[in-house]
Automatic annotation (TrEMBL):
The keyword Translocase applies. This is ABC transporter domain-containing protein. PANTHER family: CARBOHYDRATE TRANSPORT ATP-BINDING PROTEIN MG119-RELATED (PTHR43790), D-ALLOSE IMPORT ATP-BINDING PROTEIN ALSA-RELATED (PTHR43790:SF3). SUPFAM superfamilies: P-loop containing nucleoside triphosphate hydrolases. Residues 130-259 form the ABC transporter domain. One of its GO terms (molecular function) is ATP binding. The keyword Transport applies. Keywords: ATP-binding, Cell membrane, Membrane, Nucleotide-binding, Translocase, Transport.
Amino acid sequence: RLTVAERQLVEIAKALARDARILVMDEPSAALTQREVERLFELVDDLKSRGIGIIYVSHRLEEIERVADRAVVLRDGERVGELARDELDRARIIELMVGRKLENEFPETVRTPGEVRLRAVGLSREPKVREVSLEVRAGEIVALTGLVGSGRTETARLLFGADVAETGAVELDGRKLTLREPRDAIEAGICLLTEDRKDQGLVLCRSVRENFGLPNLGRFSRSGWINQTSERTSFGNYVEKISIRISGQGQRAENLSGG
């Protein structure tokens, strides 16, 4: 199987084989590692030097500042501004994107984490994960980082039951969990947002409402029948709560933007 980065190279090769003069790249770095992003930038620079015009679609401001010669900013489907290379200021881009000045992009907050909620002890699954232990407290964000191939994704999959640990234990609120499959983790209250949403996180040919309902069938079904009214109401609440931009609950997942 090709990695996401390798698949992108195949797509670019297809376009170049057709003698493309304009290349549209839609969120090309969404599922790439930092090293792969740097390789992508090198490729973009090379394509530009060959005289190929590139439309680089991204919401990552540091990427825009790195690759763009000019930026067109959209908001709610309308063009709201255009900035030349020497005008690519982060604050100005954000102002155009949100429609107002952002006084404090990263406000300082003081949090006091609560009790330990999740505890993993000695998790192992050869050859990627060896004796990993960590704790997550209530109200705390724990970053899991490392170089490519360091076992980050594999560790997350063990915590979610997508892979089964060979040794080690996982506890939630002091209760030892048996994670044989993702359903065990979901029922315990652990959910995973996958690295590759298209291949692992969504059923692209089904509606957004159905994708919402799949991991929650226990709530919306009885005797093998799905209560679509309950499913629709619950999904509608989340659409409003976290501002999901969809044309309707029947919209197919494959037609969503990357965000």
